Each structure stands twice: as C-alpha cells, then as structure tokens.
C-alpha cells in the first residue's frame, strides 16, 4: 500500500516498470485517468530506436480495481488493449464537475471493452458523491456494441447510465447466458419490461441489485423470481415496490440476503415471510419504511426465520415491542431466545424508549456483536450496556454497521462467533454482573 499522490505524474509509469510480472491483482483507491492511460500505453523505451515499442507493463494482471476522477474512452481503450489477460475490471469515478466529451465515457469507449474475450466481471460506476451526474454520452447503442463482446460475462455492474433504456438492459440479460450477478443503480429508465420474458433467458442469476430504479413495480419482481436460485436481492430505494413484491420473493428457497430499504413495504408484506417454510433468509434490511410497525416485527419473530443481520433504522412506527419480540424469538428449540441475531440496527426508530435497553442486555441476544442505536438516548445507559456486553460494538451516530454483503456475497458471514472462548465466557458470566444494576440506575437517575 502506498499513496499515489506522492508520485509526480511523469514518474508514475517509471515506478511500475519495476513491478513484478507475477502481479495479478491491483487496486488503487484514487488515481487520475490520465496517469492510468500513460501507465499502460506502450511507448518507446529508453535508449531504444523509435521502431522498438516497450512491452506492456503489468502483463499478468487479472483483476484491476480503480477509483478515478473520470472514466474516459481513452482510459478504457488503453486498459482493454494493454491488459491481455484481464478477467475482472472494476472502475468507479467521482466527478467534481460535469465531464467534457474528451474526459467522458461514450458508446465508442464501451465498444472497446473485452477485446480479448476473457473478461468475466465488469463494473462501471459513476458516483453521485459530489454532484448529480451520469454517463450522459452512453445510450442503448453503446450497450448493444458492448454486449456483442460480453456473451461469456458472469457479473455486470452498471451505475449512472441515465440514457440507457429497457432495450439496452434487456440486451444484457438475453446476450450474457452465463450472467449470475447483475447490479444496476440509478437506472432511471429501467422498467418492468426488462424482466417481462425472463423465461427466454438462461435464468441462472443468483445476485441481483436494482437500486434507485424507481419505475420498477411489483410486476417486475414477479418475473424476476423466475430465477429460483436467487441468493442476494437488493431493491433499496425502489419506491414503487410494495407488499405483492414480497409475496413473490417469499417463494425463493435459497434467498439469504434481502434489502428493501426505502421501498413501500408494510406489515402485510412481512407477513408473507412467515408463511414461507423454505426461506433461508439471513440478512434483512427494512429501514426507512414509514408503514412498518411493531406488528410486522412481531410477525417476523413468530416466523422463526434464521435472520442474523436485521436493519430497521429510521422506521417511525418501530418501538420497544419489536425489541421484546426479537429478544424472545427462538429459531429452534435447541437455542436460546434471540439467538440468531448478530447485527441489529435500530437507529432513530420513532417509538424506542429506555425500556428497550433492558431487553438488549444479558442474557438476551447472546450472539449480538453489532448494535446501532440513537445518540440522544441517555448516554449513561449506552455506556452501561457497553460494559455489560464487552464484545458488543455499539454505534450511536448513524454509522453503517457490518460489511457490504454485495461485495462479500460469497461468504455472507466472515466470522463465526458461535464458539466463545474461556476468557469471554468468564467475562460474560462473572465480571460484569454489576452492570445490570448500573443500567437500571442510569434509567432511574439520568442526571447522575
């Protein structure tokens, strides 16, 4: 690891000439697109005649992950030509100003991708961190040209392609017969028609993310679940999706991660999960749902779905009753109450009071390792809870908890906390017995 900004631009390529030819994976947190282009462009070597072109730097690279100022045609073309063995290409840009045509991605740039036909994973994301901006110079034609060379692609992530319509996205689904991961964000023209005839595709997708695609309705999800092997489904901020979408989703037997943040799901929708005896759901995000109440969480607790990650932040109707229900939840007869939850995010839930914290201490939620709460709750109670549960990470300022399940979807749970060593057992059983009383004192005497 090193800081790219420490290198003068004209020295950057010279440094990489010293890199091992065995290097197969390279990730740079930030670098300008011009420096990337100069790094990989074949050029005349020192003290050599003009007709002697230098061999490509980094000839063995298989995976390239770059965060740049602008994704440009020149950079994409140079990467595609120079890295002959590339199988994974992940590019993200974060423009400070709207890109000019010479510093942007166009249909021509997309056409140059995967010239050697070895690419398996492609990710092109335009971030909205500083300004609202998109790939305005790419339309359906660019996607069609790219799809011709991407028939063997297994994973495609596209973010910020505002000019691409159903025609372009549908081409991807029908051209890439090996596609098992699809991620589209800010697909402002993506509608239900993309998934209308899913039976004509290979139906092999296991990971699908459709975030900020506000034109999608329940009909799209009913067609999408024809991919019965779906394991990860991310529908965050799809505001037109309602309870009928969840009814269709509940039929998926292998689903492990379901993200519904910002949709239109209510208590009735969660009740469909209760009726699904085959569901293997491990992660559920029902944050920012204005119509979700304690009744929905009560229904979820009764379902005995083995959820280990539950996010329900910013839900105004969620209160103490939900915590009591989850604390009493039993996944099976051999485990204790609330035993399956490892992460619980209840930040800024409208009905939460100090009573909920009594149910967050021992012996409830014995496997809980991450907890998100609201900072304006009595600080003494939070501190006492942290002492009562020394292995619990408590976040109280709205931080995101845990890991990105999309990026780590091959292993939804990186660590297994089932086995508690002797030291932890001793601490949990004997060292912090007085903290239960501290929590009660903090509730009674908030001024102390």
Automatic annotation (TrEMBL):
Name of the protein in question: Uncharacterized protein
Annotated source species: Manihot esculenta (Cassava)
């Amino acid at each position: 690891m090193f800081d790219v900004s420490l290198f003068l631009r004209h020295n950057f390529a010279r440094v990489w000439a010293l890199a091992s030819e065995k290097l197969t994976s390279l990730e740079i947190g930030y670098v300008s697109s011009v420096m990337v282009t100069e790094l990989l462009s074949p050029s005349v070597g020192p003290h050599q005649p003009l007709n002697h072109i230098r061999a490509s730097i980094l000839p063995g690279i298989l995976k390239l992950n770059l965060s740049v100022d602008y994704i440009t045609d020149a950079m994409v073309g140079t990467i595609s030509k120079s890295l002959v063995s590339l199988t994974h290409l992940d590019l993200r840009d974060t423009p400070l100003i709207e890109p000019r045509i010479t510093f942007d991605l166009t249909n021509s740039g997309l056409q140059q991708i995967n010239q050697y036909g070895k690419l398996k994973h492609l990710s092109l994301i335009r971030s909205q961190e500083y300004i609202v901006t998109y790939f305005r110079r790419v339309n359906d034609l660019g996607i069609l040209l790219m799809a011709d060379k991407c028939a063997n692609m297994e994973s495609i992530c596209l973010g910020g392609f505002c000019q691409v319509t159903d025609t372009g996205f549908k081409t991807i689904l029908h051209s890439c017969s090996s596609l098992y991961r699809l991620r589209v964000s800010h697909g402002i023209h993506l509608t239900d028609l993309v998934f209308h005839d899913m039976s004509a595709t290979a139906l092999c997708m296991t990971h699908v993310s459709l975030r900020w695609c506000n034109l999608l309705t329940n009909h799209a999800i009913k067609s999408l679940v024809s991919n019965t092997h779906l394991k990860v489904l991310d529908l965050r901020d799809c505001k037109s999706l309602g309870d009928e979408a969840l009814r269709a989703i509940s039929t998926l037997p292998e689903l492990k991660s379901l993200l519904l943040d910002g949709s239109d799901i209510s208590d009735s929708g969660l009740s469909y999960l209760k009726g699904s005896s085959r569901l293997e759901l491990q992660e559920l995000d029902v944050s920012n749902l204005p119509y979700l109440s304690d009744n929905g969480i009560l229904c979820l607790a009764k379902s005995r779905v083995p959820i280990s990650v539950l996010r329900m932040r910013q839900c105004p109707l969620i209160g103490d009753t939900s915590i009591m229900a989850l604390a009493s939840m039993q996944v099976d007869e051999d485990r204790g109450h609330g035993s399956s939850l490892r992460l619980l995010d209840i930040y800024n839930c409208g009905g939460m009071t100090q009573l909920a914290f009594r149910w967050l201490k021992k012996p409830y939620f014995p496997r809980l390792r991450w907890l998100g709460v609201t900072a304006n709750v009595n600080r003494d109670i939070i501190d006492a809870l942290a002492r009562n549960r020394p292995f619990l990470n408590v976040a109280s300022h709205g931080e995101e908890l845990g890991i990105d399940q999309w990026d780590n979807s091959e292993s939804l749970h990186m660590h297994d906390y089932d086995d508690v060593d002797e030291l932890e057992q001793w601490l949990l059983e004997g060292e912090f017995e007085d903290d239960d009383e501290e929590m009660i004192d903090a509730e009674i005497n908030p001024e102390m």
